[in-house]
Amino acid sequence: MPDDVDERPTIDDLREHMEAESIESEEEAEDFRIRYLGRNQGAIPALFDRIGDLPPEARPEFGRRLNALKERAQERLDAAKARLKREAQSGGPDIDRTLPGRRGFRGSTHPLTQTLDEILRILQGLGFSTYEGPEIETDWHNFTALNFPPDHPARDMQDTFFLKDPPEDEEPRVLRTHTSPGQIRIMEHQEPPIRVAVPGRVYRNEAISYKSFCLFHQVELLYVDEGVTMAQLKQVLYSLARALFGDDVTLRFRPSYFPFTEPSAEVDVWWADEESDDGGQWMEILGCGMVHPNVFESVDVDPERYTGYAVGMGVERMAMLRHGIDDIRIFYENDVRFLDQF
Amino acid sequence: MDISFRWLSNYVEHDWTPEELAERLTMAGLEVETVAPVGQSLDGVVVGEVTAVRPHPNADRLVLCDVDLGDGGPSQIACGAPNVAEGQKVPVATVGTTLSLPAPDHPDERQDLTVEARELRGEASNGMICAEDELGLSDDHSGIMVLDDDAPVGTPFPEYLDAQGTSGTDAVLDIDLTPNRPDAASHLGVARDVAALADSPLQRPAVETPSEGGDVADQVTVNIEDEAGCPRYVALRVRDVNVTESPLWLRRRLTAIGLQPRNHVVDVTNFVLHECGQPLHAFDLDALADDTIVVRSTDEETTFTTLDDQERELPEDTLLICDAEKPVAVAGVMGGANSEVSGETTDVLIESAYFDPSTIRRTAKALDLQTDSSYRFERGVDRDGQVWAAARAAALIAELGGGTIVPGRVDEHPSPPDKKTVVLRPDRLTQVLGTEVAVDEATRLLSAIGFEVEAGEDALHCTVPPWRPDVSIEEDLIEEVARLHGYDQIPKPQRVPVPSRTPHQPPEETLERQARSLLKGLGYREIYTNSMLRVDRAERFTVPPAGSDRAPVVETKNPISEEMAALRPRLLPGTLEVMQHNRNHGQEALRVFEFGRVFRRATEGDAPIVPGYCEHPALLIALSGPHAPTGWDTDPRNADLFDLKGTVETLLDDLRVPDLALTPRDGDATDGPAPVTQHHIDVATGDTALGTVARVRDDVATDFDLDAPAFVAEFHWAALVDAATTEQHRNYEPVSRFPVVDRDLAVLVHTDQPVGPLQATIRDAGAPLLRRVDVFDVYEGEGIDEDTKSVAFTLRFGTDRTLTDEEVDAQIDTIVDALGQSHNARLRR
User: Fold this and answer.
1) How far apart are the CA of B569 and the nearest CA of chain A, in angstroms?
2) Which residue range forms the structural domain that includes residue B231?
3) Complex-level ipTM
4) CATH entry, A111-339, from 3.40.50.720, 1.20.120.1810, 3.40.190.10, 3.30.930.10
C-alpha cells in the first residue's frame, strides 16, 4: 500500500497494480474486493478519505480520477465473478478445443482378411463349418484322389510346385494348387453329412503379372449328403453372391471341366460398366460342380447313396471385384498407403 | 484354339451371327474367349482385265495399264507391281472404294485409304490393282493378285471369292478348350455341338474310303513294334504329285486360324487336322528306306533333328516312327527334317495313326514341345477316325496337285477296341440335377452328338462314339445332357436343406479374429507376405537343429526363380521386406502383424500331417520407429523392446493364455553367423514354448534400410491356440464386496538385479492376501548410492472379508523379509 497518497502518480500506481491482479477463484475475487474496494482496508476508499488533505484546486480532478479507478475495479471484479461462475458451470477454464486430439496409430486388417471373413460369415449362416488343411500336400491328395490321373492333360490346368527331398519311396510332395484336397481330408475322417468351407493359401507356378501371382487364397465348399442336387448348388451360390454383391446380382452358370466334379460349371457375375459398349461384362468368380463319383470312391463314400457339390472360389478375385483393384500383386506389397484404405 | 466362323458354317446350318454362336457355345461348355473379325468388306472391288501395259513416261518403277472393268471403256491405272502383265484378270479397287491397307512402316497395323482418281507423275490413274495383303486376304505383298483366267470381267470381287469357296470377311472364335473335350478340337467337332444346339444335321464331307490291303499294302510295309504306344497305324500313298502352292480357299482357311501356308501337301494335312481333329503326317516316300515304317520306342537317348531344324535329345522310351534304317519322326509330336515333303517331292506317304495319350504327353513334356498334333493325341483323338482323315487328305492332295492315289490302304490295327456302352437312368439324372429332363429330350441331345441311344426298361443304353474318350460313366452322360439342355434351365429351389448339425468353427479361427481385432486397435497393420523366398535368406533366418549344420529349409524343385526357391521358415524375412518397402516410401512408424504358415523339413520325432515336412500357422508382430504419433504436446521417442513386450502381454492376456512365462534368454555365443535377432525374451505357457520377443540385430535392420531399432515377436500360433482354448470358457466367480487395500513399496537393490524376480518374490511372499503387484518406478541417480537402484511397487491386497491394517502390515513385513533374503533388497525410506 503506498504511503504517500498526496502525489498524483499514486492513483496511476494503484491502477497498474489493480490491473495486474489475476482473479482465478472465488477466494481471489474476495481478496481483490477487500484489497481495493473494502470499506475498512480497501485502497480506493482509503484514498477517498485523504481527499481533504489536498489543495482545493486539486480536489475535483483527484476525485474524478479516483471515481474512475473505483468503477474500473468494480468492473474487473464483476467480470471475473461472471467468468468464474460461467467456468464453474461449464467445467473449467476455457481451452482451445480446436487443437487435435492425442491419437494412437491407426491399425488395419488386410483387405483379403476382410473379404475372407465376409465370405466365411455368410457361409456360416448357410450352415457351413470351417476346416483348414495343410499347404504342403501329397500328390495323391492334391491330384490323384481328386480324379486327376497321372499323365493326364488335366494336370496342366494347374502349374504345380514340387518339393525337393520328399521322403524316400513316397509319392511327390506338392504345394497345394487348390483347396480341394481339403475335400479329401475331410471325407477321410468324417461320414456324411458333410457341409464345410475350407479356406487357405494355394500356389501356382505361373508367371507373375497384374492378373496372376505365384500364390493366392481360395475358399472351398463341400456339401455331401443324400439327395444333394445341382439345383441346390445354384441356389446356395446365389445366396452367397447376393450377400457379397447385392440383391440384384446376376449370375451365369457355364458348363466347364474340373476332374473332381461332374457335371462341372464356372460361374460368372455380370459386372455393369457404363463405359463399356455392352454395358458391362461377365466376370468369372468361381468353379463348381457335383462331386465326381471317382472322388467318392477314393475316400470310400458310396456314390450311389450320396451325392454332393463342391465349389472353389478365389478370395483375391472377390476382393478385387469388391474394391475395384486391378493388380493382384498389390495385396502382397503391403504398402501402408494401400492398407490404410481398408 | 481358333475356329473360323465361315469354315465351321460349312458343316452345319444355323442362323447365328458369330457373337450369337459364341454365346451358344460358351453356354454349352465350349468357352469362347474372344470373337475377332477378320478381313474387310470388299464392296467396290471388281474383277478387271489388263488389256495393255506400257511404260510410265515419268517414272521407272511404274507402268500404265489399261484395265477393262466391264463398264465400257478401259480405265488407265498406274501400277508398280513387278508381275503385272497384259491379259491378266486382276482385282481392281474402283474410285471411291475404301480399303484398310497395311501401314507402310508397320505391316502389322492397317490404315484406311479411299481410292481416288488422281494423277501419278503427270499420268491419270483411276483405281488400284490390288495385292492379296491390300485386300486383307493374306500377307502376300510380292505382287498383284492374279485371278483365274475365266473370271468374268466386271464381277464384284466378293462374288468371285464366293465362287472360289472363300470370302473377304470372317470371324475367328478363340475357344478355351477344356482337357476333357478332344472331340471338339476341330471344326467338325465344334460343328457337332452346334448341330445339337441348332437341331440341325451335321454335314461331314463325303469321302471315298479305300478298303484295306490293295496295291499300297504290297508296296509299303508298316510294322508296329510298340502296340501299346501305337494301337493303330493307317498309311495311304499318293504318287506323281506336283507339290504346289495351295489355292486361295485353302490358304485362307489356314491363315484365318493363324497357320502359315507352306505347300499344298503340308497345307492339306494341316487342313484335315483342323477339319476333323486327326493329326496327319506326310512323308516324302523317296526319303524312307525300303518303303518301310517301323513304330518303336527308343531304348536309349537318341539325337534327332525335327522338321523345324532343331536338334533334339529324345529320352529313353520315346515313341518313334522309323523307316528300315533310321528314325523319321517323333510319333505324334513332330516329323523329321530327313523325310519332310519339299518342292521336289513326288511320292507322298500319308500317316494317320492313333497314339496312346500318356505316351505322347510324356514325350511332349520331356521335349517341352507342344504341337497341334501332340495337343490332340495326348487328349485322345477319335479312336476310329484314321481312315476317313487319311482318305480325305489323299483326295485333296491328288485333286490340288494332280497326283494318283494308290489303291487300297495299309491299316495295322492289332486289337480294335470294343464299343463302350454306358447306362443312363432318368431317375439318376433327376436326382443329380434336381430337375427333370424329359427322356425324349435327353435321347435327342445325346443322339445329336453321336451317341447311339437305346431305350431299355428303366434306363437308356448309350453307345459312346469313338471320339468321346472322356465318357465312361453315368455322370459323364448326365453332364452331356445338362450342358446341351442348358444349365440355366436348372431351377433354383425355394428351399435348400441344411444338415441338422451346428456349424463347427475351429478355435484358431475365433482366436485369430480376436487377435486381429486387438492388434488393429493397438495400431498395427495386418500384412500378407509371400511364402517363398531365396534359399540363402531362408537359411540366414533359421537356426539348424542341434547336431546338424544344415538349416531344415524346404525347397521347391521347380521354382519360378531363385528369388522364390525356398518356403519361409519364419515370417520375419518377409516382414522386414515390407518394413523396408514402407520405410523407403517415407513411412516412419512401422507397426505390422501377419498370420501365416511357416515350413521346415521334418526330423525324427516329428509327426507332421504330410510326412516329410512340418508346417504350422505362426503369428508375427513387429515394430520400429516412433512409439507414438507426433502431436502438439508429445515428443515421440523410438519404440523399444518394452513397447512390443507390452503389446504381447496385452494380447496374450486378452487371449487368456494361461501360466504365462516371459523369460529373458541367456545369450550363448554360436560358432555360425550371429543370429538375426538378440535380446530374446522366451514366451511360454507352462513348459510349452510359444515364441519369442526380440530385437532385430541392428546390422540386419540396416540391411533392410531400417534406421530405427526394430523389434519382433513371433509365435507358434497353433501351440498358443491349444493352450488358450481350454481357457475360453469361463465360470462366474463372485466379485468381492470387501474393500481392497493399496500400498506402495520401494526397495533398493543392486543395479544388476532384474525386476522380474523381485516381482515373483513379492507374489510368492504376498500370498494369499496379495491380489496384484505392479512396478511403477525404477530409479537410479541422485539421492541413491552408486551401484544401487530403487524399484517401487504398488501392491493391492484383498480377500473375502475386510482386511485390518495389522494384517496388511504383517504381509508387507513378510514381503520385505523375503526380498531381503532372496535379492539383498533393502526398504527405501
Assistant:
1) 13
2) 215-412
3) 0.87
4) 3.30.930.10
